[in-house]
Design brief:
The chain has 204 residues and is an all-alpha fold. The chain contains 8 helices and no strands. Its cofactor is Mg(2+).
Length: 204
């Protein structure tokens, strides 16, 4: 859904990417630094109940991580390794966010419902990503989904940040919504891949 905003974001990201490229920073350095920052913010602050400041730290590094693609295009360093690294590091960052929340809910936060919701959102996110990767590995396309990574990350971070500010039921609503949207996205990807596979079977 947020893919429609990419042209507008490119107008902001590209000039900053040019500045970073002149410093000699590589796209892979940006990718790894962004992921380490997200993981550090999530695993150091969320388990202590610092959900607002944890969200602020994570968000800062998420924005920083947006520049790796721009630097890659500007420097001509696009390639299979960079794409693989970026995708893999995204999974690490996502897992760190939900792990930090789960550690809080099973510890000082003491909330079984939010624990299970966060766990479900983390697992469903992995399934969404794997479904696309596996489909593409089979030569199929799997770009559909009402809640891709950007949407899922925004929902989880906004909910966590509002909860940290004391907004009642912010995480209940946010993670509940995310669980529903993730389930729909999984179903959408299963459906589109099944349809393509069936069509190939008929053609062969």
């Amino acid at each position: 859904m947020l893919n429609r905003l990419r042209p507008a974001l490119a107008k902001v990201v590209t000039p900053i990417g040019r500045t970073l490229a002149r410093t000699g920073v590589t796209p892979n350095m940006i990718t790894v630094t962004g992921t380490l920052g997200v993981a550090a913010g999530a695993l150091a602050l969320y388990p202590r109940g610092e959900l607002f400041w944890g969200t602020m730290a994570i968000t800062a590094f998420v924005f920083f991580d947006m520049f790796d693609g721009a630097v890659a295009r500007i420097t001509g360093r696009t390639g299979a390794w960079g794409a693989f690294l970026d995708s893999t590091m995204d999974r690490v960052g996502d897992a760190a966010v939900f792990t930090g929340l789960i550690l809080w809910f099973t510890g000082g936060g003491d909330n079984a419902l939010l624990t299970w919701l966060a766990l479900y959102c983390m697992v469903s996110g992995v399934v969404i990503s794997y479904a696309k990767a596996r489909a593409e590995g089979l030569g199929l396309t799997c770009d559909v989904g009402i809640a891709e990574r950007s949407e899922r990350l925004i929902i989880s971070l906004v909910a966590a940040g509002l909860h940290g500010l004391g907004v009642p039921y912010a995480l209940h609503i946010g993670l509940g919504l995310l669980a529903v949207l993730s389930t729909v996205t999984v179903a959408q990807r299963f459906h589109v891949v099944h349809r393509q596979a069936a069509a190939e079977g008929v053609a062969s």
